[in-house]
Amino acid sequence: MENQVKTLMAELKEEQVLALVKKQIDDGVDVNEILAACQEGMISVGKKFETGKYYISDLMMAGEIFKQISELIAPFMTTENRSSAGKIVVGTVKDDIHDIGKDLVVGMLKSANFEVTDLGVDVPAERFVEAVKETGATVVSLSALMTVAFDSIKATISAFEEAGLRGKIKIMIGGGPVDETVCKYTGADNWGADAQAAVTIAKGWLS
Amino acid sequence: MSSENEKLYKKRLTRIQNAINHEPVDKIPCIYMGVAFSPRYMGMTQKQFCMDPAVSMDVTIKAMKRLGDGIDGINSMAFGMITMGLTAMWLSKVLTPGIELDDEALWQVAEKEVMTVEDYDFIINNGYEAFFGKMLPQVCDMEMFGKNMAWVEANLTTIKDNYQSAGYPVISAGATSIPFEALCGARSMNQFFFDLYRIPDKVQEALEVCLPFIIESGKGFCKAAGVSGTWVGGWRSASAMLAPDLWDRFAWPHIKKICIELIEDGITPVLHWDQDWTRDLARLLELPAKKCVLNLDGMTDIRKAKEILNDHTAIMGDVPPATLAAGTPEDVRNYIKDLVHDIGPKGLLLCPGCDAPLNTKPENMEAFVAACNEFG
């Protein structure tokens, strides 16, 4: 029988899904089952977004619900029962302090089971390089809301080249003004128009 | 005003008015918009531009002059300290070049949760003006804000005249927006969006309280400036951002009410809409025909806009900021060529999308003006 968490998550029923998760934890339901149901719900959210049934506000609300559920089940998760779809380093590039789009990408990637290292905002190029070395991530997601940050994206990608890592990682970029022109200008591997696109691109690279 | 500039002004003004009215034009108007680009183009630091309220108008006019005779007017006239204006509109702290940022950096909004969930009740009980007074000291230097307001009050009536003396009509003065945008900035986008799902009735009640004051402020400013249009801005309330039921409830009724009230007062609403509004473009047909300008930034499907609105609402735009910053002069030329072919010649005003960014390549802005002359 399908876990109701999936449906409630997909329908963004915040109070009901949180109450149900608490009840299932109390009843001794395996947290992996709860997490899986929640992730299936998030997949439905992503599909609804891609087909124009959901919009950014829905993605944000879904991310918020997922975050709260993750916090509820975290104390019961062990290292052994955590699976990963891959490692991704995410951050807003140097000289840009905007975090809303970046945070949405982080939330969506986490809900799709990626291990995300979030470096925050105004992140220098060398910090991205260090993070890849430290974590072994093979995908980097760079965010920028301001056009003046395009050169920071370019500098970050150059830093990976200088560190001899460019051939070992894929780099995707996103943010309000980012488009194909910017992708070519900066030398990124791909760009996404929204947070769901980040998930799709990452899955394509890491599957 | 020199007689030559007076002639130019009248000719350009007629051109712009004809475009808004969907009447034939001798040339599709080429409209300038480059707030942060102007000082950089003229060798001025962003710090000086942001800190001295007197320089912003002069440097903008100089940049327009330097770009040549092709420019027919300015989308929104620059005046006063830009960071103070943005703070008042978004109720968020704006980091300023020369203070929190390098002298040559672009200002940035440091959005955080300044408004609490309890403040909805504060608004409902005390009104928007009291709420504005409560928020402002939390997001800006009040001494600087006062200094800027004093300058604006002393100079507002003469700003348009200076553009006019230089031969340039001004399409809009100041910016108003729906209460959604101000509260979204004050509350922070995440929290405000969550509120729309969690406490929709409370949010709506507060928004309704805010609306009359915001409308009257927008009208008053526009009239004091002596300009016939004003921005009705939209950013976070864009169709792509909001689920349809939220947009129908929290955004469109207020956009419609503001526009209708402005039109009734003889003011042209310039719907300065960033992000993607394609889903809801047909709703503009509910507004009076030929009374608004739809000002797009490259993210809304402008061809769809033309298809839906046809001769109902003039369209102004929309060379994408990314093309101006990262593209080539040929990219800009081709963009204008296609735009004129697909959208023009009637009911179109050519303009950078949103605002030409700080790092617009000078050769791209020059290509924009040249392409307007070539294809417009």
Spell out the key features of this protein.
heterodimer; A: 207 residues; alpha/beta; Methyltransferase, Methionine Synthase (B12-binding Domains), Chain A, domain 1; Rossmann fold; 2 domains; 5-stranded parallel beta sheet; 9 helices; globular; B: 376 residues; TIM Barrel; 6-stranded parallel beta sheet; 16 helices; 11 strands; 12% strand
Beta-strand percent range of chain A: 5-15%
The helix content of chain B, as a percent range, equals: 40-55%
Mean pLDDT reading of chain B: 96
CATH fourth-tier homologous superfamily of the largest domain in chain A? Cobalamin-binding domain
- Shape of chain B from CA axes? globular
Helix segment count of chain B? 16
- Neighbour order of strands in the largest sheet of chain B: 6-7-8-9-10-11
CATH hierarchy: architecture of chain B? Alpha-Beta Barrel
Order of helices and strands of chain B: HEHHHEHEEHHHEEHHHEHEEHEHHEH
Domain module tally of chain B? 1
Amino- and carboxy-terminal Cα gap of chain B: 27 Å
Task: Give the second-level CATH assignment, the architecture of the largest domain in chain A.
Answer: 3-Layer(aba) Sandwich
User: What is the CATH topology of the largest domain in chain A?
Assistant: Rossmann fold
Please write the CATH class name of the largest domain in chain A: Alpha Beta
Number of helices of chain A: 9
CATH class of chain B: Alpha Beta
Biggest interface: A-B, 29 and 34 residues
What structural class do the secondary elements of chain B suggest? alpha/beta
Helix content of chain A: 40-55%
